[in-house]
Amino acid sequence: MNQLENKISFQDRIKSFFGEKGSAALGLIILFVFMTFMSDRFLTFSNLLNVARQASINGIIAVGMTYIIITKGIDLSAGALVALTGTVAAGLIVNMGLPIIVAIILTLVVGSLVGAFTGVMVSKQNIPPFIVTLALMTILRGLSFVYTSGRPIYVSNELFRVIGRGYIGPIPIPVIIAIFIGVIGHIVLKKTKFGRHIYSVGGNEEAARLCGVNIDKTLIYVYTSAGFLTAISGIILASRFSTGSPNAGDGAELDAIAAVILGGTSFAGGIGSVSGTFIGVAIIGILGNGLNLLNVSSYNQMMVKGLVILLAVLVNNIKLKKKNISR
Question: What's phi and psi for 46, nearest 5 deg?
Answer without folding.
Answer: -65, -40
